[in-house]
Design brief:
Blueprint lengths: L16 E9 L5 H9 L17 E7 L2 E7 L9 H16 L2 E7 L6 H13 L5 E6 L6 H14 L4 E4 L8 H11 L17 H16 L8 E10 L5 E9 L2 H8 L4 H18 L3 E9 L7 H6 L9
Parallel strand pairs: 1-3, 1-4, 4-5, 5-6, 8-9
Antiparallel strand pairs: 2-3, 7-8
Helix pairs in contact: 6-8
Length: about 325
């Protein structure tokens, strides 16, 4: 794929810096979009549906002599099931482990009940860590509304800095990235300079397929399925064969995914294969299989494949 990573001009001299930055916020606040914009490549799935990020996905951004390792956490919301609870635990775990925290909120939604719950928990969960506020989707509101919201948010929590951004359009993203780079502790880089994510390709491939499923499906089905890369075979011609299993909770969901004459699953497979080939820069042969597992949401192995801790769902 074309490397379009967003990089600041490298400093000629000076110490190297490296550290972890957790992106937190409500579902659909734009965390995955911001992560992809910062890294300059797609490492986290982006859809119009909420709660699409399940695992803490790390994207690596080079900013001069600083290496920013972003942790794109699942959206923080009121958990109702085991998977929800594991996702929320992963989100707060990402914040607790990070050097810096960025709270992302939507300009047009403002200080919602969900954001207030996050603010209430930040004092305990992010104690001693600098927390920046990023007000996203600024193109949706007027300037006076933005200023009033920033004042209200800073009265509710002592943010270290406040940024006005549009993650989708890139407005304000450079300023946020450069500030983060300067705040990271001095130390050696944690990853090779050309690495953009620390997820195994097997998991990235599964996430790409899950994104295509989420975009194609409606209602509750996206939240009742998971994708696992079962087998990865490197072929002599330089291409890769990827076999994946889509687990669904109900027999009816399998029929919907397959579609009439298998047309739906073929379309999903084609879209995922094209993006995988672009991401990897070589041909990909993708084979999808749909299996019904009514209790997959209660199987520890499924959580491990998603990068979540099964025990956190208790």
């Amino acid at each position: 794929m074309t490397d379009e990573r967003n990089q600041a001009a490298p400093a000629a001299e000076g110490p190297t810096r490296a550290g972890f930055v957790a992106l937190i916020g409500e579902p659909n606040a734009g965390k995955s979009t911001l992560l992809n914009k910062m890294v300059g490549a797609k490492v986290s799935i982006v859809t119009h549906k909420v709660q699409t990020t399940r695992a803490r996905i790390r994207g690596v951004c080079m900013a001069g002599r600083a290496q920013i390792v972003f942790v794109d956490t699942p959206g923080l919301f009121k958990p109702r099931r085991r998977l929800d609870r594991a996702m929320v635990a992963a989100a707060w775990g990402g914040a607790a482990d990070a050097d810096l925290v960025v709270l992302l909120i939507e300009a047009h939604r403002g200080l919602t009940e969900g954001v207030q719950r996050i603010l209430d928990a930040l004092a305990e969960r992010a104690a001693g860590r600098p927390v920046a506020l990023a007000i996203n989707k600024i193109d949706r509101v007027k300037a006076e509304t933005l200023l009033a919201l920033a004042e209200k948010m800073n009265a509710a929590y002592p943010f270290t800095r406040t940024f006005m951004i549009s993650a989708e359009r890139g407005h304000g993203v450079d300023a946020l990235r450069d500030w983060l780079a300067g705040e990271l502790p001095e130390g050696p880089w944690l990853y090779p300079e050309d690495q953009i994510a620390d997820l195994p390709m097997r998991m990235i491939a599964a996430e790409i397929t899950r994104e295509k499923l989420t975009l194609r499906m409606h209602e509750e089905i996206p939240y009742q399925l998971t994708v696992e890369t079962e087998q990865w075979t490197e072929r002599e011609d330089g291409s890769a064969r990827i076999d994946q299993v889509i687990y669904v909770a109900r027999e009816g969901h399998k029929g919907i995914l397959l579609g009439k004459g298998g047309e739906t699953i073929k379309g999903i497979s084609t879209a995922a294969r094209v993006e995988l080939a672009e991401f990897m820069g070589r041909p990909v042969h993708l084979f999808l299989q749909v299996k019904v597992r009514p209790n997959w949401l209660d199987e520890a192995e499924r959580y491990s494949e998603m990068g979540l801790d099964f025990k956190d769902g208790n």
